[in-house]
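Minutes, project check-in

Agenda point 3 was the complex the collaborators sent over. CS summarized: two entities, 1937 residues total, and the question is how they sit relative to each other. Sequences were read into the notes so everyone works from the same version.
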Amino acid sequence: MGDSTSPSDGPAEPRRKSKKPKYSRFTQQELPACKPLLTPMIVVTTFALIGIIFIPIGLASLSASEQVVEIVYQYDVDCIPEQSQNDKVAFIQSSVTNKTCTRTLTVPRHMDGPVHIYYELDNFYQNHRRYVKSRSDKQLRSKASEKVTTNCAPEATTSDGSVIVPCGLIAWSLFNDTYSFAIDSKTIEVNKKNIAWQSDKEHKFGNDVYPKNFQMGGLIGGAKLNASIPLSEQEDLIVWMRTAALPKFRKLYGRIETDLDANEQITVTIQNNYNTYSFEGKKKLVLSTTSWIGGKNDFLGTAYLTVGSLCLFLAMAFIVLYLLKPRTLGDPSYLSWNRNPDGHY
Amino acid sequence: MAPGRRRHERLRWSKLYTFSCLRPTVVTDDELPHPLQGPGYSRLVHCNQPGLHQKKPLNYCTNHISTTKYNIITFLPKAIFEQFRRVANVYFLLTASLSLTPVTPFSAVSMIAPLAFVVGLSMAKEAMEDWNRFVQDMKVNSRKVSVHNGEGRFGYKHWQEIRVGDVVRVEKDQFFPADLLLLSSSYEDGICYVETMNLDGETNLKVKRSLEVTLPLDGDASFRHFASTIRCEDPNPNLYTFVGNFECEKKVYALDPGQILLRDSKLRNTTYVYGVAIFTGHDSKVMQNATESPSKRSRIEKKMDNIIYVLFTFLILISLISSIGYGVLTKFGMPHWWYLQPSATSYVYDASKPVLSGFYHLLTALILYGYLIPISLYVSIEVVKVLQATFINQDIHMRDEDTGNPAQARTSNLNEELGQVDTILSDKTGTLTCNQMDFLRCSIAGVPYGVGSSEVEIAAVKQIASEVSGTIEQHSSTQDFWEDSGDGFGSPECELEVGIARMVGKPHRPTTKGFSFEDDRLIHGNWAKEPNAGTILVFLRVLALCHTAIAEPNEKTGGFTYEAESPDEAAFLVAAREFGFEFCKRTQSSVFIRERYSPSEDPVEREFKVLNILEFNSKRKRMSVILRDEAGQIILLCKGADRLSKNGRTYEIETIKHLNEYGEAGLRTLALAYRVLDESEYSAWNTEFLKAKTTIGHHREAELERVSDTIERDLILVGATAVEDKLQKGVPQCIDKLAQAGLKIWVLTGDKMETAINIGFACSLLRQGMKQICLSVDSSNILSLNKEKAAKENTLMQITDAHEMVKLEKDPNAAFALIIDGKTLTYALEDDLKNQFLSLAVNCASVICCRVSPKQKALVTRLVKEGTGKTTLAIGDGANDVGMIQEADIGVGISGVEGMQAVMASDFSISQFRFLERLLVVHGHWCYKRIAQMICYFFYKNIAFGLTIFYFEAYTGFSGQSVYDDWYMLLFNVVLTSLPVISLGVFEQDVSSEVCLQFPALYQQGPRNLFFDWYRIFGWMGNGLYSSIAIYFLSIQIFYNQAFRADGQTADMAAVGTSMFTCIVWTVNLQIVLTMSHFTWIQHLFVWGSIATWYLFLIAYGMFSPVISGNAYRILSEALGPAPIYWAATLLATLSCNSPYLVYIAFQRALNPLDHHVIQEIKHYRKDVEDQHMWKRERSKARQRTKIGFTARVDAKIRQLKRKLQKKVSEERMWASMATTNCASVEAVEECLDEEAALWLKVAAIAAILIAGAVGVAIPLVGGKGRLVRTDGGVFVCVKAFAAGVVLATGFVHMLHAAESSLTNPCLPDSPWRKFPFAGFVAMVAALGTLVVDFVGTQFYERKHQEEATGAKAAASSAAADLEEKGITAALLTPEADSAGRGKDPMHIVGIHAHAAAHRHSHSHAHGACDGPALPVRSHGHAHEEEGEGSSNARHVVVSQVLELGIVSHSVIIGLSLGVSQSPCTIRPLVAALSFHQFFEGFALGGCISQARFRSTAAAMMACFFAITTPAGIALGAGVASSYNPNSPRALVMEGMLDSMSAGILIYMALVDLIAADFLSQTMSCNVRLQVSSYLALFLGAGAMSALAIWA
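CS then shared the predicted structure for the full assembly.
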């Protein structure tokens, strides 16, 4: 732009180096492309295919769910003695009352082992923000980070300032009802091993981390932990620490490895310790077998069947539609200027 | 200084110029200087004393200009302010600051970082753009100019250093640095030529002249002691006015615009001028005209803001729900939730203060649900737009081959606006035209010369050539008579085609600039051999002599270059030179031309003494010179002459014809004429002229004009010239395509009206046959005291009139063009008129505004923009277009030869107008759809995602816990869904660019906003809502509380969240696959890659230490992956979320496909290749509504040709068949031919008439059957009388007339058809025939009856009555009938007539008998009762059958005539009329049938037969419409015969069988009330039916 100083220069004429656009299929937006077309054939095929795939899946899930045998027993009211029914909270909070409760359950159908034992709580907000945050993964993992109790308040330290391990509300409110089972007064072994995720035991909960100052404060939430067993082996705690998504949830308690025959009477001895009465939560004991879809859940199968049959119906409806209102693809008479000759603007 | 220069500098031009060099002298008493008092006139300039202007109050602004939006200090606050004008940004700022407090559900960095990124990116962009502006300003500011330094020395200074009062010296072809007062020039008399193209776009040079008093200041040295003062108006944007006084040596001189040199205009043809700066920098007029460069935002973006408001409201709503829920739960639930230790909570969870907690929670919720309002949207849009802009910049189809300039998107935020443009406002010079004139054709002595064709013609011919095959094909299918006369049809068009193709075929060889003339008859001296050589000689001399140009020898070529005021003039001179009349020298008093009569001869130099020059001005529209030739003869040569003497009109007719042709071809035309003056006449005139010239005062100009007029009379026409104002390459084609795309084009030009109109023709914005509305107010002609007001009223009147005219126009093909001049525009743009003006303008196909100032351009743009609410695009190339470019929604600058101001102010720059087509139709269309779809999708996906968070809240006690991991949420917008949507925004193509260009009509999807209207937006939001619900509840239900794996584990929050999130990722990514229609490998990569990324992320995230990944540790590999239910849930949720959309698009495509769908299909099945006719036909149909552009022009021409052809064809047919002459003259040309609409109307007509007829015939039948209406009751009689009236009127008024006109149609041969009144004759014969049939039929029935019943006993008794009746019947009919009747056996005409006659007789005798009960009458007839019953029924049978015959034959004909009509205009009234007609006829017939007491099946059959005949006729007519020619003799004769026959039948029936029967009946004669009402009904029926004849 050397000549721009010359007085005879015209108006700003920056003879910019003309950036010569280069030809490439990319810059000219001419890349080869597939342009799928939604033809009636494709529409009908798609819906029919969805239907054809979904219905078997739905049937399979339903039958899988059907195979599952489930015994659900709600004991939160049952296990309160008659005289304490009016003040359940006082009963449960009292340290003197006898909280043992024995009931008999009947096996409706043959249950193949292992039979999973769950406790089910209702109206318990394990997913409350305050609750969910109240833990320290670092502390759980290694002894070295024992002091990391960032989000654990108010269960971070004891009143004298020493660290609580495991800290936080989740651990503090650990479920502490216990169940034992017997058939014909023969105790059934409850296997409490391997109820937590393997990875949790191995990597998330340190095998050198031992409970410390746990449930020592003024307020005692739930279960106490054996201070001599490392956290990685406290599987009840590990399961409990996996917070549930909904206020009604089940957690694995243990397994009965043997089969249960139909009409067998199972005597359950429940230590009814856990306070769900304050917030009117239900407590249930669940014995359930599993299939490939897990526990009993008819919803999945029903949903598949519904969507599948709906899609089949749609496929049918579209066939009818295309028969009733056939439109040759690419028929120019459907162009706006042909349909509305008085002006398509 | 070149030695040749000085020669013409000695000239004192002012002596030659008559008008523009009126030099005001010292202010005299009667012409006081402007008082210059009061506000607005305070400026005081000390010339040559710039020092005085360094301090207040005279410290005016410097000449430094700045067009930047920011400076270093203001950048940060202003740019940040700009950024936070976006509502969403404010919201994000709010959430970002909240994220620093404990209420946040997320980490602070994840909120602040994106915001900083988004804002920073946008600000960086702003800064870049502003920097460019700054550099541009710097370049202008640092231009140099020679300035007086004092002591008579001049030195170069930067423009920005010039102060008010500086004396500057500007050299040839330099720009003026400021608004200057011209002091003196290199010409002795102080004139100079100025080019103001940058200011007003005008190309012809303007003459400015200095004051007499400053003339001596013509050298550097003379400024040593120069000092004076100027008092003048304050800075204002008005380019054409200036008021000021120049005070020098105690004398005051008035200044006017003639002495002011405006900044940014250019000095031409003058070596140098001296001037003193009056207005500098931003005070200068051109800068005052500049408007603040606004920051523009596209319509879609504005609408997006609204969507964000909607979403924000929604967000607040759900936040409120959430926080209220939280408050309630905290108050009532929290105390019981011991596991949360409610006693030891912070304020956020305080159960004792639920309101406060609720409030804090509101903040939390606002952040939590923030995913509804995607921050990534802005980043993504920004990225997409930058990429789109890159594609625009890279498009090689928009790169100018010559200059190598590519198109440039200077701001990327208006890309999608390009797809929504409704109106284009275009500059003319430099934009449409390249300001180069080519002499193309001429007409001399009525003979056209020149075979070159203008670009418009070439373009049109190409169009026709491609059209012709199409049209023939198109019409042959429907109208066979095109085929019949295939040769005849083709011929005129072929002629036309061949004629022009010949011109096109010749390779264009423009040898000389400005001269494209090609015709061997004139060049190389061949003209001398032409028959009119003498006239040609005069013609060429006029070209060579009648001008004000200067010839400069060109050293290089040895020839001359011409410096002329206007390019036309230069073109003439070049043409004259090429023809052998070279203008070579001009002196003060003479013009020298070298004439060469043949190439071999040496040129003869001739001198013509110039006596007077009456130069061109826009009012006079002509220029003349008065010369004395070497022989001493005084001649006046005139260009643009329109007033001719009687004997000068020899060639007038031809010349005018040629002028029209040239005009149609888009050429500028001028008529040339001359006149020989007597010495005495001249001297007398010259005296008067000198007197006028020396008149003092403002009358002088008018006086001069008047005097000039007196000599420019009685001119002899020589010929006419046609000069092509060279359009830029491809302009007509581009305008054509844009017009087809439905865009309206306004031309705003500073040029004269004539020029503008010519260009309008050249670009096909105007065409012959378009109705031009010229609005212009000549205020000087208004002799009102209040000129302003009167002018305004006049404008209003013109606008209203024009509006009326437009409204009253019926022809759908009519097009209007509005042409308005600047002065009128001033009034039209005032607040109270502008809406009327606008509504007129939008009804016109094209609008041309001439002589508009830059400010007005901007105002017009604003008016269109705000008045219509549509998107406007302004395109221009000069500084004068900057205002409009900035004002319009989109400004496009042409980076051509002129300055860069327009480009700098523009949003897009292209190097040629023709690239606008691709910019809009391809890129605009794409960008609009891309952005619209992208935004919709964006909202969809964020709603689908964000709402699941909300639903989950309800299950967590509204605590603000999210089911998803923080990382998922962060990644959702950034990684998992961003690239597919960007690829949608960047690469999506609904149709390829070729299709876009082939179907410009597709562009209309943008202006109609099909893809971003609220339906669509809410549809997408609804889809999001549905998806969120489906995903959430499906996931929750599936992962309820049971084990989700065979191992018995239950799903925790991480598992549920992850699986839900998987569903979302799949759903939204599949959704975008359904949305896209164009998949390159990039889209595939992005979409499937995004889904894959999610799984990869899960695996990778799961491998991190659990401290980071928390509960998501090994979630996929350990927990979810092996669980079939996880995959099953994904499949279920994804497909059920996407099915409804699939159903929707399948439905839409099946039932209501959009244009691009159909075209996609055509392309997909390669139908365009296989069926090229269809493809071509659709392309031409797509532009049917276009009114401007040469396609419309060709269409109009084809229409015209068709009409001519139609005439010609029918003529030919007539010659062939009947040899009649003027058949065509009466043939109505169907104005609104529209076969499709006609067909629909016919279908409607069939239905309507069928129903009307059926109802009409059914009423009496059903009524009769059900005895609801007694067929002999009074009401029935009345109704029947009415029907009889109808039938009668039908016969007389409709049928007879129709027959008459058919049979006297000029298409029929004179002999025998017009020798004898066939219509009446046939009618008569038919009536007689009916009588016979009536008689025979009745006899037949009667016999049958008699045989069956009692025998012939009554025959004798009624014989007398029969005879009487016979007489009556005969009397009622024609005498012939009587005679004919006599031959028949009168014996057995019995029945109702007999009764009637008998009763009438008895009635006349014994009127009184009726007063009593009808008993005696009854008794009288009693004897005949039984017999009469039987025989009258027979009559009824016959009557009804004959009536049916008459009516039916008539019905077929009217049906047929409706059916064959192709014009909705004629069908529409016919339908209504025929429905009535049919109803009444049906009623009459139905009455007869019911009286005849047929068996029900027979009656029904007759009724049905009647009801279907007319519809059947219509159907038949429609079927044969294409082949049926209503004007063929056979058809005419058939029609006439049938019509007159049915007329005869109907008249007979009505009079005899209906009227006579009833009115003369016994019931009637005895019932006065019935009589009166029956007569009324009869007249009413007849009247009503007759009235229908007006329409049918």
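Noted in discussion: Chain B touches chain A through 134 residues (CB under 8 Å).
Follow-up: revisit at the next meeting once the mutant set is ready.
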